[in-house]
Specification:
The complex is a heterotrimer. Chain A is an alpha/beta fold. Chain A has helices at 5-12, 41-54, 86-106, 124-139, 149-155, 181-194, 238-244, 307-320, 369-382, 396-399, 405-408; strands at residues 31-37, 59-62, 78-79, 117-121, 145-148, 169-173, 177-178, 198-200, 205-211, 214-220, 223-232, 252-261, 271-274, 279-283, 289-295, 328-339, 346-349, 355-359. Chain A contains eleven helices and 18 strands. Chain B is mainly beta. Chain B contains one helix and six strands; from the N terminus they run βββαβββ. Chain B has one helix at residues 36-44; strands at 3-6, 10-13, 18-22, 52-58, 66-72, 78-83. In chain B, the strands form two sheets. Chain B has a four-stranded antiparallel sheet, with no helix packed on it. Chain B has a two-stranded antiparallel sheet with strand order 1-2. The longest helix of chain B has 9 residues, at 36-44. The model of chain B has no long low-confidence stretch (mean pLDDT 95). Chain C contains 24 helices and 51 strands. In chain C, the strands form 13 sheets. In chain C, strands 8, 9, 12, 13, 14, 15 and 28 form a seven-stranded mixed sheet that branches. Chain C has a six-stranded mixed sheet with strand order 42-43-44-41-35-45. A six-stranded antiparallel sheet of chain C has the order 47-48-49-46-51-50. Chain C is elongated. Chain C starts with 13 loop residues before the first strand and ends in a 14-residue tail after the last strand. The chains are: A alpha/beta, B mainly beta, C alpha+beta.
């Protein structure tokens, strides 16, 4: 049944008793053309685009827990594409273009809210960095505005521009914003199932069957399955799955925490990021401030982080917004992020034939969801990455052609 | 928030330390003789196990010494800390 | 009439001490000892706020920190705080509070219209609509955002202060009810260091509100004695008004203490709140339990509250919340409250879902004239802003349906009790595993992970007698396990008139039809989640507990589901016909209760947000009106404006002074590392890209440091002071990083190398003098021979300057004749002032970092981090001359032969001169292949440094340009965001004194 205001009103007369399942719980079939391992936004999206754009009929998505339960449901929902390098800009902007039509495409409101994102600059060096990135964005066709201190103060009520590290300016991307994270997984799941994709939850992959260097099957907690192609999209467990297939990755899995405040009436209508004072914050539609910052430096699969990271989010938040000091932190949580050396993802082929991987999104995977899913679907379908995905190969770690977004933020002199 | 037993100073709060990733990755003796792939593996590829992990920490706000930690990445429990140069402990199969 | 609901006697409020307060603009009087909630109830105010989604009238549900409904905006102006639970606010003189989420008033709330439209707003309605047209979402969202949120954020800076305290203890006990107190007594008598935390202003917990006996005597007196003994134990610290918030790994607890929140006057000396960070060898959780609401239609009206809350308002505050009361229960224990209400003059009717009743209770009900409806359920309630009537109907348990006549009861207060849920939040945060207990129908602790005990009702144990002795013994055992001596066990006999036995969760009254046909059975009061919403989520496939939670938002309010969780899970269990254990539960996350952001930030705000590093000469710069820039934590003079100069005028003057006579720069922030040891040269050979073996004593050499990926990450001059002694300099921002880098390789890779590194950045003040007159100037002040022959460029000498022991390095970052004079930091300002005084005749000019940047750019010297960005090799910077071809190995070397690093079209460091000789290119703007009317345009590189050169009289720029070396002399274009296109010529990077004569003078 189509989701619309009309149907919402219509169903209210039957007390909403006639809505169909957004997705069902089918049994695992013995054989699939493509199995996607990982039921987060990227994995479900990959299945959706494989079915929709490439006509693949027999697809399953295997999720070890509940769909959207990994980083899709644990992030701070920021979406932007103002990356420095051409390769990243192409990938993330592909995503933003898809985000813009996603609610209509999926017939599910993912609440992509383009309320604008400000990257704050706190030093001469920061100003140089945002100017460089702003120009790079501008010339790549990505909207960018470089603001001075007065403009920032005017556009962001209540921000403290005269703190320990004054705000000297900001890079504004108006097309950036936030979306409702859970809805992305649910929307893709529902749309994929409508195209015949089997979404199988509580199904953990325990082994990968390889014959003559080609993937042929998977061992799961719900039985074994024969496959023609497999796409691994297991954020938080990329190395675990890769090890199962006999190869390793340039990845460390570390805890990343985020938190929300109690809900309050609208007070912040844009997204704020500061790399120097080190916090990012936006206000959700529910009214909660959604706050994030850095990851812990140690490897962990516990989905917990250390308390000092929380402290190091709150002090910068109060530094930038002294008015938030009396608000209350309501809930904090942790996720596992797979961090690559250059903070760019790995999308493409693996040493195993017909086994493809999409991982290493680090702290920033949510924003790329539709773009990542879209290019990965094509990679799986064609067996080769397309132009957007190609620079993100595993091979770059041998050739040295890193897409180093971490280095680009550079270091103060 | 761990308590870490620095082999030089004893038990201290995690906030005094920094983790520097996987331990026991020796720098190749003959970098010029190995392939790009081998060099890339040394530089970037890591075990990243779900389970026992050997990793390097420094006691930054203390003795500034580097040492190794054996820790379970699922429970975050530290199994052992030991000095640089000491042999990698065995993983018990309990 | 004031305090009309106050009983004639009873309660522990001080009726001699009236307190004035204001709610929604109206003045009231409460008493000392009241909470805002009890004082409002005493004044017959029941309508406190409006609910989140439907704007339904809401009152006071509980009497504690689990309150979902009675949350208010407290205080005014900069001190206003949203979402404060009225049930926790201790009344103080002049308190002002108001209702939230209503307009224009809580009594007449326009938003209440939502309640009538609620049929089209089921759980998740927003996912199904507002999608078309896509461009309109921001418009729809604007109204959704306005409708959402609860209270208002302050809009001024917080005037209050928060503090943090680090605390180490043997045992921390969370909860000062009977279990916690006795555990503290056991551990305290054993002699170990005990910290007891309780969120209330008074210790005693649940027993403060109920009658009980110890050894057949009045229990309250016994309780008082226990607390007195604890107060007297020096090894026991008691924190009241303190909520344990987070339970992190290795028994790390955080707790928030309200220090002055309840004070009449704001304190200038005390913080508002204190954040405790506690590390304990052992933790004992004794947090007790929350009473569980019952789920029935319109169970949310003001006047409907938990039985235990009614009990507390009556016994502790002397407030009778209603006179014609219905108790709706599924357990025996709640009858105590019925009896208490009758005793205080209320008429009570009981609706009990069970068909069998304890004979003793039956008898007492008869005696007190309490009518009991057995096997009945409340099925609906009425009343606009307060409950005034309910409907009840008999329950046929076997058929799982309602049967018989609907009966009406007029009432002004419904007390409900659905049993008790242990407060397992902290336990669960500590990774403790839960199991579902079918006897009391709730989750109880199962497996403990940390070094911890959990006792009393927190552990699902509700029997007073057993809790008394077990808790005391748990305290002794905990101390014992930490090697403290045992103390004698005690045997107390404790008795309540009615013991808690068991209770059912009551999903059957939600017979499917009843739920979905329009009436609202609330599960989560604050977030307006009804039973129908839970049904809808299951119907639509959101059947994982996490999906149900996220889709319906149940348990996601500011109470974090303390009253709603178990009912939601029980209902899911009912719908799926599966045991609750199989349904599972969502993860409990810190904090236990909402905690103040400012308290977590603590003192790390304002000036203390991050330490400011200042050089020993800093105050002189301040006195001489320097404008500062932040470089890492350092404050560096950016420029020194004179009169009303702007930055351009000042920098121009400073530059020309250096080029023509004499300038002075405070370069103390430069990183300095002292290297000693027989392997120092060998070590430097590995660390730097160039060769160090042949550097003579007394000589200086510039070096580049690269990471193993081959990319430049720092640079600086290192000098050989002695046979095995080197002085390394680093960039200001890179000092700590370089230090760690050196230590890493010495301690992890080359353990056999004998080298010591010591950071000496702060030990030396560095006065860099530069300009053609610098030799003449310095000669007068030092005993060192400065002659060209005896002290040439790139040499180092020791001696005295202005009578102070000094090291002079003859190195230059400006291209002029320069000396870097290092003196012990404590003499920095002294020597600086001497220099300024003596330099007058040369018009000595202090200059800042901006002038330094211009001067070095004129010479094409790079700044790591500005001209490089972590993705460039020495070769990219045309610095192959500094990369040794002979050395077998150094850090980064191997990476230079990879396919990407040998690529011919890599970006190279070049100079740019704009053709109009006027425009200063923005640093960060890009060179494109071809200027087009609008983007996208293919980029070839970017401007890294760009200045007006006062020396040359026109702008200069440095850039990274694809295949730049082969483009020398070619024309390039730089499009600006304002549409202008700037043309420039590619040049060499050295714009001034190409031969480098001046610094060799």
């Amino acid at each position: 049944m189509k989701y619309s205001l009309y149907n919402l009103v219509k169903n209210s007369f039957s007390y909403h008793e006639n809505w169909e399942k957004a997705w069902s719980s089918p049994d695992l079939k013995p054989e699939y053309d493509v199995v996607i391992v990982g039921g987060g936004g990227h994995g479900l999206g990959t299945a959706y685009y494989l079915a929709k754009e490439f006509g693949v009929k027999n697809i399953a998505v295997l999720e070890k827990g509940w769909i959207g339960g990994g980083n899709t449901g644990r992030n701070t929902t920021i979406i932007r594409s103002n990356y420095l390098w051409d390769e990243s800009a192409a990938l993330y902007n592909h995503a933003v273009n898809l985000w813009e039509g996603l609610s209509s495409e999926l017939n599910f409101n993912v609440m992509f809210s383009q309320r604008g994102l400000f990257h704050l600059a706190h030093s001469v060096h920061d100003m140089q960095e945002i100017t460089r990135r702003g120009y790079s964005n501008y010339l790549n066709g990505i909207d960018a505005e470089i603001l001075n201190q007065d403009q920032v103060a005017k556009k962001i009520p209540h921000i403290n521009v005269n703190g320990r590290y004054p705000v000297l300016g900001a890079l504004l991307q108006r097309r950036a914003g936030t979306a409702r994270h859970d809805a992305v997984a649910w929307g893709y799941a529902r749309a994929a199932e409508n195209l015949g994709v089997d979404i199988i939850q509580n199904c953990e992959v325990k082994g990968i069957d390889i014959s003559n260097g080609k993937v042929v099957g998977l061992q799961t907690t719900k039985g074994s399955v024969k496959v023609d192609k497999v796409g691994l999209v297991p954020a938080g467990h990329s190395s675990v799955l890769a090890n199962m297939a006999g190869f390793s990755l340039p990845i460390n899995s570390v805890p990343l925490q985020a938190l929300v405040s109690e809900p309050v009436k609208p007070i912040l209508d844009c997204v704020i990021m500061s790399n120097s004072v080190h916090v990012y914050v936006s206000q959700s539609d529910k009214g909660e401030l959604v706050v994030g910052a850095g990851s812990d430096a140690y490897n962990s699969y516990s989905q917990r982080g250390s308390f000092d990271m929380i402290e190091h989010m709150m002090a910068p938040l109060v530094e930038l917004f002294p008015i938030f000091s009396r608000l209350k932190m309501l809930r904090s949580w942790g996720g596992i992020v797979d961090v690559t050396p250059d903070r760019s993802p790995i999308i493409g082929k693996t040493p195993v034939k017909d086994l493809f991987i999409n991982c290493g999104w680090g702290t920033g995977g949510f924003k790329a969801t539709p773009g990542s899913a879209h290019v990965f679907a094509e990679t799986v379908f064609r067996g080769e990455p397309n132009d957007i995905a190609a620079p993100f190969s595993l091979e770059r770690h041998f050739s040295g052609a890193l897409v180093d977004e971490a280095a680009a933020a550079a270091v103060a002199h | 928030m761990f308590i870490i037993n620095c082999p030089y100073c004893g038990e201290r709060d995690q906030t005094e330390f920094t983790c520097h990733g996987e331990a026991h990755i020796a720098r190749p003796d003959n970098p010029s003789e190995i392939s790009d792939e081998e060099w890339g593996r040394y530089l970037f590829f890591r075990e990243n196990p779900k389970g026992t992990h050997f990793e390097r920490w420094t006691h930054d706000h203390g003795c500034r010494r580097w040492f190794n930690v054996m820790r379970d990445t699922v429970t975050d429990q530290i199994i052992k800390t030991y000095k640089m140069g000491e042999a990698k402990p065995e993983i018990s199969n309990e | 009439m004031s305090n009309q609901n106050r009983t004639i006697y009873g309660g522990k409020v001080n009726r001699e001490k009236p307190i004035n307060f204001v709610f929604n603009g109206k003045s009231y009087i409460g008493y000392q000892g009241d909470t805002l909630a009890s004082a409002l109830l005493a004044n017959d105010v029941h309508l406190i706020g409006r609910s989140f989604k439907y704007h339904r009238a809401r009152g006071i549900l509980t009497a504690g920190s689990e309150e979902p409904n009675a949350i208010v905006q407290l205080g005014l102006g900069a001190r206003t705080e949203p979402n404060i639970r009225a049930t926790e606010v201790e009344l103080y003189e002049g308190l002002e509070a108001s209702s939230q989420n209503c307009w224009p008033s809580v009594n007449f709330d326009i938003g209440a219209m939502n309640n009538f439209l609620s049929r089209i707003f089921p759980a998740g309605f927003y996912y199904k609509t507002f999608k078309w047209p896509p461009s309109m979402w921001l418009f729809y969202e604007h109204f959704i955002r306005k409708a959402a949120g609860l209270g208002q954020s302050p809009t001024a800076k917080n005037p209050d202060r928060y503090e943090q305290k680090f605390y180490y203890t043997d045992i921390t006990i969370v909860g000062g009810g009977i279990s916690g107190l006795l555990a503290a007594l056991g551990a305290g008598r054993s002699g170990c260091k005990v910290l007891l935390i309780d969120e209330n202003p008074e210790l005693g917990g649940y027993l403060l509100d109920y009658n009980f006996s110890i050894n057949e005597k009045d229990g309250k007196k016994w309780l008082k004695k226990i607390i007195e003994e604890l107060d007297g134990l020096a090894n026991v610290t008691i924190l009241k008004r303190t909520t344990a918030m987070g339970y992190y790994d290795y028994n790390y607890l955080t707790a928030l203490e309200k220090v002055t929140n309840h004070h009449v006057e704001f304190s200038n000396t005390l913080p508002r709140e204190r954040y405790w960070r506690i590390r304990s060898k052992k933790v004992i959780l004794a947090q007790g339990a929350f009473e569980r609401p019952l789920v029935f239609a319109d169970n949310d009206r003001p006047g409907i509250m938990m039985a235990s809350a009614g009990q507390k308002y009556l016994s502790r505050y002397g407030v009778l919340p209603g006179k014609s009361v219905v108790l709706f229960t599924n357990n025996d224990h709640a009858y105590l409250t019925a009896f208490e209400f009758v005793e205080k003059g209320a008429k009570v009717t009981v609706v009990d879902t069970r068909d069998l009743l304890n004979a003793r209770i039956s008898e007492k009900c008869k005696l007190l004239n309490i009518k009991v409806f057995k096997s009945y359920s409340v099925i609906k309630t009425y009343g606009d802003k307060k409950v005034n009537r309910i409907e009840i109907q008999q329950v046929d348990k076997n058929q799982n349906q309602l049967t018989g006549e609907v009966e009406n009861i007029h009432t002004d207060c419904v007390l409900m009790s659905g049993g008790w849920n242990p407060a397992v939040q902290l336990f669960s945060q500590s990774r403790g595993k839960l199991k579902y207990d079918l006897k009391i129908n709730t989750f109880v602790p199962d497996k403990i992970i940390e070094n911890q005990k959990i006792i009393g009702s927190n552990n699902g144990q509700f029997n007073l007698q057993e809790n008394l002795n077990e808790s005391f013994e748990a305290g002794i055992a905990a101390a014992n396990e930490l090697n403290f001596n045992s103390v004698e066990k005690v045997n107390w006999t404790g008795k309540e008139e009615i013991e808690f036995t068991h209770s059912d969760v009551e999903p059957y009254m939600l017979g499917k039809k009843k739920v979905t046909k329009g009436s609202k059975h609330f599960i989560d009061f604050q977030n307006d989640v009804t039973a129908a919403d839970i049904f809808l989520a299951q119907r639509e496939g959101y059947i994982s507990v996490e999906h149900t939670k996220r889709y319906t938002t149940t348990g996601m309010g500011t109470d974090q589901g303390k009253t709603s969780n178990v009912n939601a899970l029980a209902l899911m269990s009912h719908i799926h016909n599966k045991p609750v254990d199989e349904i599972g539960h969502t993860t409990f996350r810190p904090p236990y209760a909402p905690q103040t952001i400012g308290a977590i930030a603590g003192r790390s705000v304002d000036k203390l947000f991050d330490p400011v590093r200042k050089t020993s000469i800093h105050e002189w710069h301040v006195e001489n009106k320097a404008v500062f820039e932040d470089v890492g934590q350092w404050k560096r003079p950016y420029y020194f404006p004179q009169n009303k100069e702007d930055i351009h005028q000042a920098v121009k003057r400073e530059c020309l002074a250096v080029r023509n006579s004499l300038g002075i720069l405070d370069a103390s922030t430069l990183g300095k590392i002292d290297l000693q040891g027989p392997d120092a040269a060998k070590f430097l050979n590995m660390i730097y890209t160039n060769a160090w073996s042949k550097l003579e004593i007394g000589s200086c050499r510039y070096g580049l440091m690269c990471n193993e990926h081959g990319m430049i990450f720092d640079d600086g001059v290192t000098s050989r002071l002695g046979e095995n002694h080197y002085h390394m300099t680093t960039t200001t921002g890179g000092a700590a990083r370089v230090m760690s880098w050196l230590e890493e390789f010495l301690q992890t890779e080359w353990l056999d190398m004998k080298v010591f590194c010591t950071s000496v950045t702060e030990q030396w003040a560095v006065l860099s003098i530069s300009g053609p007159n610098s030799r003449k100037f310095l000669e007068d002040l030092t005993n060192i021979d400065l002659s060209k022959e005896n002290f040439p460029f790139m040499k180092f000498r020791e001696g005295e300057v202005c009578g102070v022991k000094a090291r002079i390095f003859r190195i230059s970052f400006t291209g002029e004749l320069s000396y870097e004079v290092n003196v012990p930091a404590r003499y920095g300002r002294y020597v600086w002032e001497k220099f300024m005084e003596h330099g007058k005749k040369y018009n000595i000019t202090p200059y800042g970092t901006e002038t330094m940047h211009v001067l070095r750019a004129e010479k094409g010297f790079i700044i790591v981090g500005q001209d490089t960005d972590g993705s460039v090799t020495p070769s990219d910077m045309n610095m192959d001359w500094i990369v040794s071809k002979k050395k077998e190995d150094f850090l980064g070397k191997r990476s230079y032969t990879r396919s990407d690093t040998v690529r011919h079209d890599r970006k190279k460091f070049v100079g740019l001169l704009v053709n109009d000789k006027k425009t200063i290119l923005p640093e960060g703007s890009h060179i494109v292949e071809k200027a087009l009317k609008q983007p996208p345009m293919k980029m070839l590189g970017h401007i890294t440094s760009s200045y007006y050169s006062p020396t040359l009289g026109y702008p200069i720029a440095l850039a990274m340009l694809k295949d730049g070396i082969s483009k020398m002399g070619e024309q390039v274009v730089v499009p600006l965001m304002n549409g202008k296109i700037i043309e420039a010529t590619v040049t060499d990077t050295i714009f001034y004194d190409k031969e480098g004569k001046r610094n060799n003078e």
